[in-house]
Amino acid sequence: MVVYQDVSNETDRIFHALADATRRDIVVRVVQREQSVSTLAERYAMSFAAVQKHVAVLERAHLIVKERRGREQIVRSNPDTLRKATVLLQHYEELWRDRAQSISDILSQGVAEQEKGEES
Question: Running DSSP on this structure, what letter comes out for residue 3?
Fold first, then answer.
């Protein structure tokens, strides 16, 4: 089986962005509903500038979209990018399920051969 491999910088940016717990939490929050950067910053025990940096990483990975509305910067999710990550992970899951099935088949075959040898 061939694993789908997207070796682009985009994939690297997506998984780098999702490697951080705060950024994953921000993604969850903006998937539920769009929020201002100020509202997001209130939720974390870090400076506003630190939250802005996390938002910038997510924006570069295209996991979120940020737009200015008046004086606020509104953040919303980008489901297309989340789907790309999901597809890649599903391919890896399929690979591991196939490998586990192959191991199971080999073990079953070995047990059957051993039982056949004991009957002789």
Answer: P
